[in-house]
Amino acid sequence: MTALARLNGQDSRVWSTATWSAPLTTQLVLALVIVTTWLLGKWFPGTGAVVLFVAGAGAAFLLCAGITLLLARSSSSRARGIALGVVGSYAVVLVGGLLYGLWILAW
After folding, report:
1. Where in the chain are the domains?
2. Hey, what's the torsion of the CAs at 16, 18, 22, 26, to 10 degrees?
3. H-run or E-run covering 45
């Protein structure tokens, strides 16, 4: 079964949970990326901002992917909805961070 077919086959409770959890998970994922990037900057001083952001985003991706895989395999529709919220939140944070870095910071 393809990913698109699995997404189309979800019930309304999954989509409702994903919609309601997205604002909270976006803030959590953004905080995770910021804290990870800040900690990497403290541990490795003198490292460029682009490298720190990529490393922080990569670490956040691994954590988000693990959480999403665990929740997506659940039989609970709420857990699958939160998994969709986490995936969407990571995409929003990644695109927003890249736009901020390229446009405002002029990497």
Report:
1. 12-104
2. 170
3. none
CB burial readout 10-43, b (16+ within 10 A) else e:
eeeebeebbeebbeebbebbbebbeebbeebbee
Cβ contact 32:92 at 8 Å: no
CB 17 within 8 A of CB 85: yes
Give the position of tokens 């949970």. Answer: 17
pTM of the model: 0.84
Cα distances (Å, whole numbers) of residue 81 to 78, 85, 91: 5, 6, 16
| Residues 20-66 pLDDT 10s | 999 999 999 999 999 999 999 999 998 898 999 999 999 999 999 99
The Cα 55–Cα 17 span in angstroms is 30
**CB-based contact 50:101 (threshold 8 Å):** yes
Q: Could you tell me which of 11, 25, 28 has the C-alpha nearest to residue 76? A: 11
Residue type, 43: W
